[in-house]
Amino acid sequence: MRGISSMATRQVLAELADAAVAAGFPRVEIESVGGVTAANRVAEGEAFDLVLLASGALAKLAAAGHVLADSVVPLVLSQVAVAVPSGSDATAEKPVGAAFEDAAGVRAALRAARAIGYSTGPSGDALVRMIAEWGLTEEVGDRLVQARAGVPVAKLLADGEVDLGFQQLSELVGQEGVRILGVMPDDCAIDTVFSGAVAAASQDAVAAEVLAFFASDAAAPIKQAHNFTLPQH
């Protein structure tokens, strides 16, 4: 059984796949690539059984008939966090609370930063839109550094390429050379729900059962251990 996912969920999905095998299901070999690349490959007809992407991307694939619309189920909710270089090789720990009291603190940090790292995909797009809505594009736009394919924002921070970074919390925790300030404050939070669906081309009748396991209460502790929260179904 084959699956494809975006990079943001690769670690949690690998552990969920192991747990599914332990529960008696067949193994799903999940390939994790950039979200846009994954969606394009599915749309171009490459054969997969499960597709695990941001909900918006899955909705488009469902509308086009590439995944079964009635199989789409939310799996995890990912929060964007704010981080800075730590100045050491220590690994980043999960923070408590928000990085700033409110959106005004985020705006001040953006204005003060030398270079601002952000990721590809829906969370990065949301940050760029937010900056535009705040009227800051002209002021900070030339300091925005989008992480290259396969390069996490944490590496940009650790290497000193940027001094302020925005990425999903699950991608920052445990990375060397990074200090996580916290998640985005409530009044400007950037949250992404990642969902799963059965590919329309799948011939494996067990695919839906494996996906149901990924969405079950039994899988919740694994998701929380990887710094995701549980979405509302």
TrEMBL record:
One of the Pfam families matching this protein, by short name: SBP_bac_11
Domain of life, source organism: Bacteria
Record GO biological process: molybdate ion transport
SUPFAM superfamilies associated with the record: Periplasmic binding protein-like II
InterPro entries registered for this protein in UniProt: ModA/WtpA (IPR050682)
Gene Ontology MF terms in the entry: molybdate ion binding
Identification of the protein by name: ABC transporter substrate-binding protein
Annotated organism of origin: Gulosibacter macacae
